[in-house]
Design a protein that fits this description.
N-(1-d-carboxylethyl)-l-norvaline Dehydrogenase, domain 2, Rossmann fold, binds D-Mannitol-1-phosphate, binds nicotinamide-adenine-dinucleotide, 16% strand, four-stranded mixed sheet, six-stranded parallel sheet
Length: 486
């Protein structure tokens, strides 16, 4: 069988976008959108990808930076299938191994946009980073160093500023990135002229992204290759649904991304889209998957078909999450129904274990705000969101350490638990204590949740009750019995 690069060739466009992150999501979302916009809207842009972390590098060069995005699912009530060879990636550089070549991108006159997806861990201020580092460790420090090099190279020209479009799923991602960049300007004494250039020639937009991307379809790879007629080690599977909300309407003309295949909205009001999506879609994932995994399920699609877990999902999303979203209830309910349809997509197998990654910060960002608002509105602890915290603690409950992870147990099987190393270390130590101390210590850890959860009236006792019930009867039986309690 032929290789993808023997059949297709990259397109040639000016490099207008630098992208921090080579991961599945950006490649099936941003690069896909750029590729379509080149075709449909005459965008005429290619992307230089920068790998932001040290370590292994996927084999982009061997494939001439070509890869296939396979979209499978329903769209407007009908089955949808698309195989698109993305041809707009011009080069892939490591910020570490190719430092000089990467920094030379700062001198490219055509460059206009910086996209980033460095996970929730990426947008942080680390004062240990220095301007002379090659490169500094933290992403905002890398970006500041890069922008400063550009500012100097073009002598502060107003038309050589860059527009930052971070897609990390944290609140106010653009403003948070700018805050970190300005902190480095101060730390490194980069001067008032540079700070003014960042303010006037550059921009930092808050953005929200939405598309379920599962990456390389390992189990079905052979069938895909058979269908495509070539081999592609970077094959990337995702759903057809797409939404990129960009909080700077002024950029729409220069970045015409909305197309027949990709949904982009430029607006001043990202917040309403973000709250709806993060609370309902991501909140449903995070509050469901850990308990569902312990209940013996492996994929989101399995949860949708399982009447017991499905009852949880229906009751928690419509009863506890939707009423907290600051939109007309009918609108939020319609969004939730659409999300359920996406979860039911039989072609995209979204593994619960992949969603479980970093669940502590996810529960804090994606579930706790709904928990808090639901409690405020109803005056009581929301049944399922409270249970979901116990399910999280049950999923993380182990004293076994693996390589950069903990090892959990599901019956006779084992699974890997990935989260911040220091959080895992403390949880493993607490797991050796009686259940009430494990639960107490975890809830009291302010750095996990941003507050001491033991101070919430009745929460600790209720979480302990769920936790002990999961241990006694199993997650499945407990979810079933909870479904019957009003
Ligand atoms: N997969 C999806 O459906 C989806 C949808 C919307 C948003 N996202 C977001 O995208 C992120 C990545 O998902 P993915 O599916 O591309 O995963 P992936 O494993 O394919 O890629 C991870 C990416 O994050 C970068 N990265 C990891 N740790 C980093 C760090 N400490 N600092 C800087 N960069 C770091 C890697 O270089 C890589 O580009 C997730 O955290 C998620 O918030 C994913
Ligand atoms: O990608 P993560 O690990 O941040 O979260 C897992 C899922 O909730 C997430 O990928 C959603 O599928 C995505 O946010 C949909 O747009």
């Amino acid at each position: 069988m032929k290789e993808i690069q023997e059949i297709y060739s990259p397109e040639s466009h000016p490099v207008r976008i630098m992208q921090f992150g080579e991961g599945n999501f950006l490649r099936a979302f941003v690069d896909y959108a750029v590729d379509v916009a080149n075709e449909e809207n005459g965008l005429d842009a290619s992307v230089a990808i920068v790998i932001p972390i040290a370590g292994e590098r996927p084999q982009f060069a061997a494939q001439k930076n070509l890869y296939t995005v396979c979209l499978r699912g329903q769209q407007e009530g009908a089955p949808y299938k698309e195989n698109r060879v993305v041809k707009c990636v011009d080069r892939v550089l490591s910020a570490y191994a190719d430092y000089d070549a990467y920094m030379q991108l700062a001198e490219l006159a055509s460059l206009r946009f910086v996209v980033s997806n460095t996970t929730e861990a990426g947008i942080v201020y680390d004062p240990a980073c220095a301007l002379a580092d090659k490169p500094p460790k933290a992403f905002p420090a890398k970006l500041t160093q890069f922008l400063y090099a550009r500012f100097r190279h073009f002598a502060g020209a107003a038309d050589k500023g860059l527009h930052m479009l971070p897609v990390e799923l944290i609140e106010n991602n653009g403003q948070e990135l700018k805050r970190c960049v300005l902190a480095y300007v101060k730390l490194w004494n980069l001067g008032a002229d540079f700070a003014a250039w960042l303010d006037t020639a550059c921009s930092f937009a808050d953005t929200l992204v939405d598309r379920i991307v599962v990456g390389y379809p390992r189990a079905e790879a052979a069938a895909y290759e058979e269908e495509l007629g070539y081999r592609d080690a970077l094959l990337n599977q995702a759903e057809p649904f797409s939404l990129w909300v960009i909080g700077n309407p002024a950029l729409e003309k220069e970045l015409p991304l909305a197309s027949s295949k990709f949904h982009a909205i430029f607006t001043d009001d990202v917040v309403k889209y973000k709250e709806r999506k993060v609370r309902i879609l991501n909140g449903a994932h995070t509050s469901m998957v850990l308990g569902a995994y312990l209940a013996g399920l492996d994929y989101v699609g399995d949860c949708m078909k399982d009447p017991i877990v499905r009852t949880q999902l229906d009751q928690s999303v419509y009863g506890e999450i939707v009423p907290t979203v600051h939109l007309p209830e009918a609108e939020s309910r319609a969004f939730a129904a659409a999300v359920f349809e996406r979860f039911e997509n039989p072609f995209v197998h979204h593994a619960l274990l992949s969603i479980s990654l970093n669940s502590i910060s996810k529960w804090r960002a994606r579930v706790l705000p709904s928990f808090r608002d639901s409690r405020k509105h109803t005056g009581r602890l929301p049944k399922w969101l409270t249970y979901s915290l116990a399910a999280l603690l049950a999923f993380y409950h182990t004293t076994d350490r693996g390589e950069n992870c903990l090892i959990g147990h599901r019956g006779t099987e084992t699974y890997e638990i990935h989260d911040d190393a220091d959080k895992l270390e403390r949880l493993a130590a607490w797991a050796a204590l009686p259940a009430k101390d494990y639960v107490h210590n975890a809830l009291a850890a302010e750095d996990f949740w941003g507050e001491d959860l033991t101070e919430i009236d009745g929460l600790e006792a209720k979480v302990l009750e769920h936790f002990e019930r999961i241990a006694a009867v199993g997650a499945k039986a407990h979810i079933e019995e909870l479904g019957k309690v009003s």
